[in-house]
User: Fold this.
Amino acid sequence: MQDELRLLQKLIESVRPLNMDDRNVFSCIWKPYSAGRKEVITAAGETEHYLYFVTKGIQRVYYLDDQNREATLAFMYPPSFGGVVDSLLLGQVSRYYYETLTPSEFLRAPVQELQTLMAERPGIADMVRLGVTQTLSGILERLVEVQCFSSEDKFRNLLRRSPHILQLVPHKYLANYLGIDATNFSKLVNKIKI
Assistant:
């Protein structure tokens, strides 16, 4: 677990460095967790109780409408945080699913312990707030892409942000994430030089 905690600390440092006391206290709330392939960790209708830190595997957050159509909203892979964050931080029922695409390993922190640390330690609260703000900024950027960009531009931007993602995530999920028909996605993969 020491290697995983070092990876977590490195990610935290990239968001907002913590002092030694905050870092030590924050490290203590994380416990190992694993899940198999295609396992729903959090389902719509449940409340998210953990913040996850991905150490192995690939996951996605998706929405399922009343006609059983899926909308893939986000992918998680090491080293990143995972879970249904709005449900976690607002303490409300999730509208989304958090699912593993491959066998996955995590560190996870219970929301009660996370909230206690945030209330008691301003440095940790600032780090979490900044991390959530950075995530929101990325989501807003993605909304602009979905609404304004051509399929080819969405595909190019995805490769610019995450050039390795074509090797990590099955193409049907990437097509869904971009809002592109799977056949058109295949054409883009073949057309655009990577």
Summary: The two ends are 36 Å apart (CA to CA). The beta strands are 31-35, 40-42, 50-56, 59-64, 70-76, 80-82, 97-100, 104-110.
